[in-house]
Amino acid sequence: MEQLHWVRHRCRQLLVADSGRGWYSAPENPAAKGSLEPHGSPHRLSGKRRKVLAHHGPYQQEYEGICKGYRGNAIRTTKYSLLSFIPMNLFQQFHRAANLYFLFLVLLNWVPVVEAFQKEITMIPLVVVLSVIAFKDGLEDYRRYQYDKKVNNNIVRVYSGLQKDYIEQRWQDVRVGDFIRLSCNEIIPADMLLLYSSDPHGVCYIETANLDGETNLKQRQVVADLPLQGVEFTPESFHSRIECENPNNNLSKFRGYMEHSTKGRVGLHNNNLLLRSCTVRNTETVVGIVVYAGHETKAMMNNSGPRYKRSQMERRLNIDILWCVLLLIIMCLTAAIGHGLWLQQLKDPIFLVDTETSPALAGFYVFWTMIIVLQVLIPISLYVSIEIVKLGQIYFIQNDLALYNDQLDSRIQCRALNITEDLGQIQYLFSDKTGTLTENKMVFRRCSVYGIEYPHEENGDSWLYRTQSGCSARSLSCRSVNCNQSSVSLHTLTADSEEEQDGPSSHVQPRSCAFCSRMEVVPDPELVRKLDCLASPAVSVSDSSSRTPSSLELTYITDFFLALAICNSVVVSSPSQPRHVVPEARIPLKSLEDIKLMFQRMNFSPFSALSAFSPPQTKDSPRSFTRRLFARGKAGSFTPPAIPASSTKEGLDTENSADDELLYEAESPDEAALVHAARAYRCTLRGRSPENLLVDLPGIGCLAVRLLHILPFDSNRKRMSVVVRHPLTGQVVVYTKGADSVIMDLLEAPQGDRCSHIREQTQKHLDSYAREGLRTLCIAKKVLEEEEYELWLKRQLYAEASIEDREELLMESAHRLETNLTLLGATGIVDRLQEEVPETIRALQRAGIKVWVLTGDKQETAINIACACKLLRPNDQLLTVNCGSKVSVQRCGENWSEPPSAGRSAESSSGAAAGFILVIDGRTLDWALQDELRSDFLELSRQCKAVICCRSTPLQKSEVVRLVRDQLKVMTLAVGDGANDVSMIQVADVGIGISGQEGMQAVMSSDFAISRFKHLRKLLLVHGHWCYSRLANMILYFFYKNVMYVNLLFWYQFFCGFSGSVMTNSWVLILFNLLFTSVPPLIYGVLDQDVPADALMELPELYQAGHTSKIYIPRTFWLTILDGFYQSLICFFVPYFTYAGSDIGDLSFGSPINTSALLIILLHQVIESHTLTWLHGIVLLGSGVSYFAFVLLLSLWCVTCSPPTNPLGVETLQMSQPLFYMVCALTTVVALLPSTSFSGWEAIYIWWKYLNGTNSLLVEKAQQKGLFDQLETGSARFVNLILNHCKHVNQK
């Protein structure tokens, strides 16, 4: 029996030993700390743990006491119920300070001594606002209720102890401890431990698209040491106990153990857990036991709902609200003091005055009365209006066809509903490279095997992006900086680059699964010729200079492509068969004749070529050939039997026909590219099972490779390994692929000139690939002796079974295995640049946005990509910083001063100023981010046009974003497409995820999600500019109209003894800001366009103008307040002086004031609006008509509806007099004239100053055309003429 079988058999014996000890229970003498011997003390779960027992089993009494306390599987994402909706919603709404403030005013108005209006009228604003928000919340909650009801009523088969069979139950009735039976394509209802699979190897395939968006299939394994799979599972026979960690939201981690009735324990890990919301695929039947249900499942614990971030404008708004409160207090204090002084000086009043109250107390009462009268100064409806406007803005963003990807059928997603205006204020953009700037659709481009490069020129012609578009290859060949000598060099790229040209437009094809499409790879002719030598009649074992490869080179080539085919987690399928598995076989096979006979029994047809081989008992058998071929360093020669050409041709034709049906489903595009490359060289992966791989080797045929272990890729190790038993030699071999920066450090010491030569040449090829912008990987192997493998296997099984510190133990075990590797070769994979990336980056830079690239790729690759996407231009200067120690970085920090000024003034042929590009590697960045160096690093990066961080980890990405955001106090945006970008996306002020080839983790963590990088251009330059401009102007308009109207009441106090009386009807007073003037600002905030979209796209500088013009800053806020004060003075005193000396009453005096105020406020918005549509006209006309209709009806029918005043007949009388209309017209014109002229000239001045300061060439040409001669009219609309002409000049 195989040694592996013996080891596993021995493991099982130890697990079920009567002593109760073994690897999963503590021994009497624990091993020393750090020991990994299998008999050492295992790690147990610490802290609180969860015990799970079968619902229908021998532990019924214990189950009732334990599992009944766990939550059920019903979910509820609603906030309210029918009974709790009103109290809970009111409780949440009164968390807002503004709502509490108006509630205080309502209660204050019920105090008789300070009562200003009728009690019911004062409640109207608060009731309306609370009702609108409650309606919105209730509608959203009802939709959640409908979704919950649908999910909870899904049907699943649950085992019933009474009926001894699986019965249908609703999801909400599932409990912890229930046995669940699922079929293919069913959704998993709860987190359950996998106990049975219809797959004979105990494997279950799941799709996690509902959880993380990834569509590639993932394998889950039945708990180890359970009865043989393939036989129907019987829940009655399950007598084990489960102990695991308490519910948590970590999707990639699960710890626990299962204790059998024999007291043996089996470790549980994430591969045994089926998560709620995932879908069973390619597996007929699975059975599991529920461990977490309902809201305790990992999926529900990760469901945090919509993201909430507080925008910069919202923080500014809160400050201005406090200023309004201070202004209100000052006005009320003025009225209180004025009323006290007026009472003191009042002699022999002819009207009724309360003489019993002292002037001081009366002034105190008036203070609170004025708080009620002037309450409109605090815009209670502003917060509601902002929410409505943002919803409207999001609607138009999501329905923009320019942001729709018809090939993927995806549009932009707005996941954060309250930071749309931040899109218009971005100053720093941090971008990932792979999948963000590039397609993340990899194609095999180059490879190096045995130190010999194979360029694959034909394969790269149609896929290689144009690296010459920004820089020539010669301009990127500058030396790296050696910071160990404390030097920082500046490399100026040569300007004699090739003609700039755009790469071919790329198209993303829709995919139904991850990376499963057929990738065409054109083999390199020289490499094909060498592989054909495996079937040739003569192979030289020693090296020679002839065209015939040596046996050692053939060994390298064969192992290289075998590693590409099997060192992965690719699932093989075809249109007719969902998954290709490997039949059981004897391993290792003793001869190629055995291979032929086995596949003939299995009805595999493509191996007729094997019939040419003779039986294996001769000394020159293929078995002997392969033994000698793969035994490195042995001399001699061998002549294998010839293979008939017709037989070979027939076999290859059949093989190619079969290959056309194979589909590969990979977890990453890199894996798919490598498997397709191996397939192009007839080293084809045909099937996979947990223990075997089916692989075609050229000239040999189909072999079953025994898969002993997989060490998956992780971001810390940056490599992946598989342990297999070689199908030809029977040896235990480790194949490893990973980043060259890691693999090169794990290689064995060179033994002889040949190994040193291979290593040196491969390193040269890797550097060349990186300069071409290719993604590089190293391929290596290691042959293990049986005793060495058995020792490692024991340590590995111990680490896998450990509960605590499992990840650390697995890391140590992998490190022991992946050392002293033999380098086989390297690969270079092309990742094509997305369409319009150079144009997008150029536009963003013109908009004043600094673009940083944070990538884990090599420095040369990152520089080349930066050159291709125009981030790095021919006349830019490279500042490359690579340091080997912290001391070197500190010495470099002394030189991190201002770059030479000569480089700053240089300009390219296109007129763009040259700049410095900082390139820093991950190790140096790690030291630069430390406290003592971060200020120097930040100062240097501020002076650079762009920064490229290479070899950076996810943590470093987030630290860089946080450093720039917090220290520079700037608005940051981070964009990425993978799980390694999540941290920086969450740290940035605005996080954007790209729904690319690496799943949906970045999208699910983002504020906005797009499908292509080019969409950033319109999202920021157009929608971002519009959202910021609209919302800023709308907020200022709200402050303006509230201040303007409130001051009318304040000026009246000077003529009524500061008594708190008003000259208008209380209904009109309350509804004026709440109803008559509330809708126009909403239309203004959603539809206004200060600059057309085409102008914003063609002139990105206008985005920067949004910052220089400073729409919403303290200066504009106070100018708006002053404008409101001025217009209120005009609106009050023009009617006052007109009616001075007449006998009209208070309400008659207030009628023209209210009407003028309405006209001034509505026309002021017309003046401020840059876009007027029919919808604007309808809303403005509707506001005016509603006001006049209301006051006329009130004048005709109201007798006692507004005590103590009586508005009956007031409005009808006033509107019948010509003087009323003359007063309203004069007041409106005089009030609006200064602001109209000022706003027009201010807009012209701002744009003139901006254009003259940043684009003098365009302005000079505009002056020559005489365009600015038309500006004397002072109309702001001439700004658009300026911009359109500049656009025309720019195009010329």
TrEMBL record:
Binding of Mg(2+), residues: 432, 434, 977, 981
Pfam families xref list: Cation_ATPase, PhoLip_ATPase_C, PhoLip_ATPase_N
Enzyme Commission number(s) of this protein: 7.6.2.1
A GO term, aspect molecular function: ATP binding
Subcellular location: Endomembrane system; Endoplasmic reticulum membrane; Membrane
Keywords in alphabetical order: ATP-binding, Endoplasmic reticulum, Magnesium, Membrane, Metal-binding, Nucleotide-binding, Translocase, Transmembrane, Transmembrane helix
Transmembrane segments annotated in the record for this chain: 98-117, 123-139, 317-342, 362-384, 1052-1076, 1117-1137, 1149-1167, 1174-1199, 1219-1241
Known catalytic reactions: a beta-D-glucosyl-(1<->1')-N-acylsphing-4-enine(out) + ATP + H2O = a beta-D-glucosyl-(1<->1')-N-acylsphing-4-enine(in) + ADP + phosphate + H(+); ATP + H2O + phospholipidSide 1 = ADP + phosphate + phospholipidSide 2
Gene Ontology biological-process entries: phospholipid translocation
Names of required cofactors: Mg(2+)
Binding site for ATP: 432-434, 671, 713, 737, 775, 855-857, 951, 957, 980-981
Domain P-type ATPase C-terminal: 1003-1244
Protein family (similarity comment): Belongs to the cation transport ATPase (P-type) (TC 3.A.3) family. Type IV subfamily.
NCBIfam families xrefs: ATPase-Plipid, ATPase_P-type
Protein name: Phospholipid-transporting ATPase
Annotated gene: ATP10D
